[in-house]
Amino acid sequence: MSKLLRVLIILSFFVSTTILISRGFRSSKIPNGSKFDCANCHVNPNGGGARNAFGQAVESRVSPGGFEDFWDENLASLDSDGDGFTNGQELQDPSGSWRTGQSNPGDISLVTNPGDPNSKPDPTSVEETILPAKYELHNNYPNPFNPSTRISFTIPRNEFVLLKIYNIKGQAIKTLVNGNYPAGSYQFEWNGKDDNNVDVAAGVYIYSISAGHFNKSARMILLK
């Protein structure tokens, strides 16, 4: 057997093993993820290749090949595939309270694929939720803060939301939110780092939201 052939066999084994490992750990970090396995995140149900909209949302929350937990109330509240139902509603965890290692929530027979717009729940199986009546950008908490603070907002309808942090000179240093969100309440944490993951200096910062015709800004103080 030639040296080149041996190398190709080893590489093929490595790639296959990587795909299988990826399939196991990513689907296990989604509530009821075993029902659709790799199809939750990939266009190809066998895994690998292009990611669907839900898979792209997951990818943006983890490092390459990382084992981080990514399921939370924010991912649950998104309607990644645009079928009118949130990821949480499709996966039987509308509040996003499930955590890795816990028993699967709800009824797995009612689970649909959050990355496939043609896979959606029967409306009668989805609990009615009370939606906010107006746009709001709440005061961050804590403020002043060190090293992190939480910023929350509510929107009464589906909107493209942009939430950014600026320094006192008006320069954008961090994008916290950049995407479509259905009506609901959301909370995001800022850890005092910029978009390059570098710690910023102590001082006054401005967080600003744009959602449809709603625009609002507020100040916060980072201590060191």
Query: What is the chain-wise order of helices and strands?
Result: HHHHEEEEEEE
Kindly state the number of beta strands: 7
- Strand content range: 15-25%
* pLDDT averaged residue by residue: 85
Oligomeric state of shown chains:
single chain
Lateral strand order in the biggest sheet: 4-3-6-7
Question: Any idea what the shape is?
Answer: globular
CA radius of gyration is 20 Å
Alpha-carbon distance between the termini? 62 Å
Describe the main β-sheet briefly: 4 strands, antiparallel
Helix share bin = 10-25%
Number of helices: 4
Spans of at least 5 consecutive residues with low confidence: 13-23
As for the number of domains, it is 2
Pfam families: FlgD_ig (PF13860), Temptin_C (PF24784)
Domain Temptin Cys/Cys disulfide: 28-115
Region (Disordered): 82-125
Biased composition (Polar residues): 86-116
Q: What keywords describe this structure?
A:
4 helices; Immunoglobulin-like; globular; 2 domains; 224 residues; alpha+beta; 3-stranded antiparallel β-sheet
